[in-house]
Design brief:
By secondary structure, the protein is an alpha/beta fold. It is built from seven helices and twelve strands. The chain is globular, with a radius of gyration of 19 Å. The two termini are 13 Å apart.
Length: 264
């Protein structure tokens, strides 16, 4: 076995995840580490969180959707502390049998691209719907023959709440029952949460239903596997009517791991 060691990093808009992977191993070397961060304090977060990461890594692969400033700061930290220039992954036109559904393939968020690549590895020879419940909620479809179709993007639950706060007087960020979905509520916090949950779950129910209908019409498969990832997945999915779903919090990291396994 080639004992190359990789540090794999998934940088979202408000949360960063990472893990260590030995080339050729079936699983990650440790539990995935997760930290919330603010862009203006990213270097302090790295100082605190990465002090125990083994420095003897051969390569660092990063999926970043948080913008160029964050990318530059993380890259400078890696070079300054470990002497390693990280590789930032971008969305490709294809990967093995997976074919990017965007006309301009680099416009597809790299997190979505890696999630689709990972989904194919987890559920080979199946039609798959990938839902990412993060800062934004995204839906992608991958057919069993590798054709990717990008779906809708909508605000995530926290973003919907913040939109209300930004545009409505006398409201506070909801801190009530986060699985609330009631048409009768006793306070404003639960009213906001219920409204957001109704909006998000109803949208996903409709989107997945329509995708499954299209897959049934075109491919004869109406029960595509649904793989869900993202920070709000555990909260949101039980509120939907979507069946045949599994939650995989490390989906983007698994996509990075699959890419790393292909590198010479």
């Amino acid at each position: 076995m080639n004992q190359e060691k990789y540090l794999l990093i998934d940088i979202g808009n408000s949360r960063m995840k990472w893990n260590i992977w030995w080339r050729g191993a079936r699983h990650f070397a440790r539990d995935t580490q997760i930290v919330d961060y603010k862009p203006q304090a990213i270097e302090r977060v790295l100082d605190n969180e990465w002090q125990d990461v083994e420095t003897a890594v051969n390569a660092i692969l990063i999926a970043n959707v948080a913008g160029e400033s964050i990318a530059q700061q993380v890259a400078a930290w890696c070079v300054g502390h470990w002497g390693i220039d990280p590789q930032f992954i971008t969305s490709g036109a294809s990967f093995h049998s997976v074919r990017n559904g965007y006309r301009e393939h680099r416009q597809l968020g790299v997190d979505r691209w890696l999630a689709v690549i990972a989904a194919q590895q987890l559920c080979p020879d199946q039609d798959i719907i990938v839902i990412d419940c993060g800062t934004a909620t995204t839906v992608d479809t991958l057919t069993r023959n590798g054709q990717h179709y990008a779906g809708p993007i909508m605000p995530g639950c926290q973003l919907m709440q913040r939109a209300l706060l930004a545009n409505t007087a006398a409201l506070n960020l909801a801190s009530g029952d986060h699985d609330s979905m009631s048409v009768y509520v006793e306070n404003t916090q639960n009213a906001i949460i219920s409204g957001v949950n109704f909006a998000a779950s109803s949208a996903l129910n409709t989107i997945v239903s329509q995708i499954r209908r299209k897959l049934s019409d075109e491919l004869g498969d109406s029960e595509a596997k649904v793989i869900v990832t993202g920070g709000a997945a555990q909260q949101l999915m039980p509120l939907t009517q979507i069946n045949h779903s599994i939650v995989e919090p490390d989906l983007v990291l698994i996509g990075l791991r699959r890419l790393a396994g292909e590198k010479q």
